């Protein structure tokens, strides 16, 4: 399984720190369900996975439940109760479940590397990860030639790759992933495109802009680099 470098993972974690901090403050009383939905709804699947890891990294696994939930004034059913976990010395680590080992024949996939490849970043991927990245690009309404240009490949390379993978899937008796384009792709106005590029030039990250414009960071990257809407700005 290929992995991203420490710098790339660190950049992603740094971008998500404000989101993680907001989530913590909302859960601790500075907001409600609507705020949670609005915050989490802005994130893509990769960002959500990374956010879970980031939040988990903030918790001491050897901390007792009585300490971890000392701030609560209600029990697990939402009923008012003074310190519902008082006297509970079970450690968080003791509640962890044992993870099942994947079968030896199952090919592991690094979803972070998949996302990076689909965004045009320089990252090593397996054939399976590349295939999943192509599926993501198609879901963003990109053609195979768009993907070739994104990855600086010879035109037609992505199409040939998919042909090889399709034959491999048929040989193994597996169902080949569907290449489904979005039924209603996100449409950006000229003003939005100009604002995105202006804010990006001023230092805004792709993730921040994606959250502002209700789209994915990869789409923002394509706009900022002129791969989408080159007619604007």
Please describe the structure with a list of short key phrases separated by commas or semicolons.
about 230 residues, 3 domains
Describe what this molecule looks like in 3D:
This protein is mostly helical and 233 residues long. It folds into three domains: 6-95, no CATH class; 111-172, no CATH class; 190-224, no CATH class. The chain has eleven helices and no strands. Helix 6 (127-139) crosses helix 8 and helix 10 (206-212) packs across helix 11 (217-224). It is globular.
The helix content is: 40-55%
Query: Nearest-angstrom radius of gyration?
Result: 22 Å
Provide the number of structural domains: 3
Number of helices: 11
Shape descriptor reads: globular
Order of helices and strands: HHHHHHHHHHH
* Count of strand segments: 0
Overall average residue pLDDT: 81
Q: Give the percentage of residues in beta strands.
A: under 5%
Find the structural class using helix and strand composition.
Answer: mainly alpha
Largest sheet: none
Compute the separation of the termini in Å: 40 Å
Low-confidence stretches: none
Topology of helices and strands:
Layout: H1 6-30, H2 33-41, H3 45-57, H4 65-68, H5 111-118, H6 127-139, H7 144-150, H8 157-172, H9 190-201, H10 206-212, H11 217-224
């Amino acid at each position: 399984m290929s992995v991203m470098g420490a710098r790339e993972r660190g950049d992603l974690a740094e971008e998500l720190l404000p989101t993680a901090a907001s989530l913590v403050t909302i859960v601790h009383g500075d907001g409600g369900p609507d705020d949670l939905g609005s915050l989490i709804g802005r994130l893509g699947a990769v960002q959500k996975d990374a956010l879970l890891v980031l939040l988990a990294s903030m918790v001491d696994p050897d901390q007792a439940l009585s300490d971890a939930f000392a701030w609560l004034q209600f029990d697990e059913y939402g009923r008012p109760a003074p310190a519902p976990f008082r006297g509970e010395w079970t450690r968080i680590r003791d509640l962890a479940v044992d993870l099942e080992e994947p079968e030896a024949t199952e090919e592991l996939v690094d979803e972070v590397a998949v996302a990076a490849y689909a965004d045009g970043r320089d990252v090593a991927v397996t054939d399976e990860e590349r295939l999943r990245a192509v599926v993501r690009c198609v879901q963003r309404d990109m053609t195979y030639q768009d993907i070739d240009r994104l990855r600086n490949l010879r035109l037609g390379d992505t199409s040939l790759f998919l042909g090889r993978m399709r034959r491999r899937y048929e040989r193994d008796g597996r169902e080949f992933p569907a290449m489904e384009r979005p039924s209603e792709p996100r449409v950006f106005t000229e003003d939005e495109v100009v604002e995105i590029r202006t804010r990006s030039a001023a230092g805004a990250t792709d993730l921040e802009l994606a959250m502002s414009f209700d789209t994915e960071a990869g789409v923002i990257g394509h706009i900022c680099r002129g791969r989408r809407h080159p007619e604007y700005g």
